[in-house]
Amino acid sequence: MNYFRPGEHPSEEQLMELAVTGGPPDIREHADACAPCSDILKEFRRVKEQVDSVGVEDVPEQVRLSILNAARHGGGAGFLQELFLNPFFIALAVAIVVILLYFLVGSEVFRSP
Amino acid sequence: MDGSTFKHIYDRNARRLYNFILWTTGNRSAGDDILQTVFMKVWRSAAVPQSENEQTAWLYAIARNACIDHFRSARKFVEYNDNIGVKEENSEESDDGKTAWRQLSQLEETERAVVYLHLKLGYTYAEIGRLMSMTENNARVKAFRALRKLRDVLIRKGL
Fold first, then answer.
1. Is the ipTM value over 0.90, yes or no?
2. Of A3, A6, B15, B89, which residue is 20 to 30 A from B63 by alpha carbon distance?
């Protein structure tokens, strides 16, 4: 059944979607019966065929080995590494160092004669 | 992250990510470098999303950012290889693939990435939006514009 009124056509985007993924039946039926829409549909189907003709590549073996070996030998993010990279930990460490310096050195410096 | 988890993530995603990077950059050596960068970031990462959907989105975000960094750091024209996705040289099939790949060079990087995700991997626009940090509608528009450009090239060349 054609859901489009006479003179009404699906948009190019709808026809593209029909070519690429298989759209709703009303658009398909309309395109089958309407020459201008059928032409547009054929053009988009040709585009899809072209894109389909580009193959999917495998990851080159040396790249695969390089990644897996680096991971095996490189050492991942351990707890301590993550801790040392954490800005809150860095801020806390700096604060502790400042306080220690104050007690070790500052207290002598600031003591009144 | 332990080695077996990393290998599981690699085995499940590497091929798709590699092709996503190839389609985005259009350059094989950039693809090799960026894939290694992506997985080194994964390996060094302390928090890996647990659910498959989140993990996929996370990986594509890393890959997308690595591609952007690559274009920024290259600061020059990145050569577009004309033999990506060509399985056997000197065959009729390879000629079609080469022609198609050359036509894809007319598209912007993001458009090529969207076409790859939609046509080659079958992702919906909502999924592409999530993977590419754009709205569903934006993904739809990009795919439509890209395929219309390709159609116009075909018509112009009488193919």
1. no
2. B89
